[in-house]
């Protein structure tokens, strides 16, 4: 008896299984191999919907000029110390109470009772000194290498704004532990603002939220230290970094490009 | 910079960049190493020095000596150095504001296209001088002691006279410190420079009798210590002994 | 810039826009651009103005200083100061207190005219340079500031260093044998009374106009 051959159902060509490729097959085959590619798949999924990989590639694989040395790590180190301040600050805020009657006790609790409390507090405290030192060193490098000149003038201006904001951070943060040192340093600091003619007296009233050191002075300093200035620093830092990537980092001023023989000849003939 | 100089710079920079290396991983590796170093320093400082907390804020104190954080010492010293009351707003607001404006506008008034520090003598010298001035003010601010304390080494001729003389000297030092002399006079690192003359070596200029006479009958605005001489002659004598041994 | 295209006429009639009439300049696009800006400004103002007012409110709010007893009349002499603690702001615990130096009016040193408010002289401990705590040194009869070198004489006038005016004072009055301390006021170098100012704000010459008194604190009327 001849074998009965059933008719093939009409399948649209898109759904027909692809014929096997000849030769060796690359890429994941078994489900386990597919699972191993999960990270790449997830990144691919996000990139398909955001097209961010172009920007990341532009940021990470741009060329830095030759001669770039250790002095060029000061800027990123400043940013890194800011990140460290942000993280330790968030954890300190979980225990800190911004009230003039309880602030000192809450810092004592952090230091004495909280697990690793004094360590995190110390990191925040010494990290602030570190950030101030690094931002000054970074500014010194920019100044002596002439890196603020064309086309990077705007980035210098943003950098000075970041320096002032960093000093504002250290001034407002200094009051928060509420010990003798911080209290009197803040009194003097507020009065320094008050010596500005005409607007000064109103500015000190604004900083203290009244004519004297009062109930809401500490929370004002806390809000400025915690939210206002860090937000401004993060935004300006992002713009600063964008401009660095856009314009490229400078080469040390004494490094000269080696131009090829051919180019030199063209110059002579023109 | 004119258009030609701008183009020349961009061309040169373009060549340098094309001969360079990609940011990742070459520069990132250096940045990462630096970040690890920074973190190591912060963690070491935190473990070794900790986060010391002073006594609780006390607004009623009359004996506390306020001092700022170290990176504001230069401003603190500037406020100490500028004495005339009419110039106070200059020290508090004026000079810092001018410095900030000068910093902001640096790329706009420094139009020199040259970038090598050794070929920009004015900018480089100004930068080094600014750093040196800030460093010097920071040092002075850090070493400024409160006017209510005096800490001078015991002179050789006093220690040569034996234990009694040294004890007398120390007692006199304490009396002078409590009597507010540091408000107007300088003793070594402590006290204020003016309106009175520096007393670090007063014993060389005046004999003990003359010092005692000045303390009782001073020229204005110095206060008379006749009250102390009457109520506590021992302390007055210690004071005179201390001052006359400052050589 | 010779290669710029000539600017378009602002009149719709000149630009052959359908429905244009003589003298009209506002096109549909112009109108929509204007509305977008207006709506944006209103929306931003709707949250920015209340927030600003909220932050600035305390600058215009007057804080009254209550009178408080500091001791019997017999506790204060005319030739030396006695420190007393007063409460400036009762809501903030210890940081709302302050120390004042008190003594009796002494016609040998005090030259200002006597009235109901200065039978006892109450001197603030805030240095008038930048507000550090001054200390009265009895043997020298001087107020000495530990910060930047300010020195004041027995009545609080500046004798050395950078302070810009004499030490601030407090109104005092006597009731039933008790001395009461009231609001603070500032004085110029002739010890004339002014509305309270912050440290570092001179009151001589044009100083009182350069550093105006603020709504948060005013001098007692008729004093």
From TrEMBL, chain A:
SUPFAM superfamilies named in the record: Transmembrane di-heme cytochromes
MF terms in GO: electron transfer activity; oxidoreductase activity
InterPro entries, alphabetized: Cyt_b/b6_N, Cytb/b6-like_sf, Di-haem_cyt_TM
Region (Disordered): 1-23
Keyword presence, Membrane: yes
Cellular component GO terms held in the UniProt record: membrane
Any Gene Ontology biological process: respiratory electron transport chain
Entry keyword annotation includes NAD: no
Record field: compositional bias (Pro residues): 7-16
Record Gene3D superfamilies: Cytochrome Bc1 Complex, Chain C
Membrane-spanning residues: 70-97, 130-148, 154-176, 223-244
Residues covered by the Cytochrome b/b6 N-terminal region profile domain: 42-253
Keywords recorded for this protein, A-Z: Membrane, Transmembrane, Transmembrane helix
Pfam families: Cytochrome_B
Database matches in PANTHER family: CYTOCHROME B (PTHR19271)
Protein name: Unannotated protein
Source species of the chain: freshwater metagenome
Automatic annotation (TrEMBL), chain B:
Domain Cytochrome c: 167-247
Subcellular location: Membrane
Keywords from the UniProt entry: Electron transport, Heme, Iron, Membrane, Metal-binding, Transmembrane, Transmembrane helix, Transport
TM stretches of this protein: 32-51, 86-109, 121-142
Boundaries of every Cytochrome b/b6 C-terminal region profile domain copy: 13-142
One GO term describing the cellular component: membrane
Membrane topology of the entry: Multi-pass membrane protein
GO MF term set: electron transfer activity; heme binding; metal ion binding; oxidoreductase activity
PROSITE patterns: CYTB_CTER (PS51003), CYTC (PS51007)
The protein's name: Unannotated protein
Organism annotation: freshwater metagenome
TrEMBL record, chain C:
GO cellular component: membrane
Cofactor: [2Fe-2S] cluster
Record PROSITE patterns: RIESKE, TAT
This protein's UniProt keywords: 2Fe-2S, Disulfide bond, Iron, Iron-sulfur, Membrane, Metal-binding, Transmembrane, Transmembrane helix
Pfam family for this entry, one: Rieske
SUPFAM superfamilies cross-referenced by the UniProt entry: ISP domain
GO molecular function, one term: metal ion binding
Protein name listed in UniProt: Unannotated protein
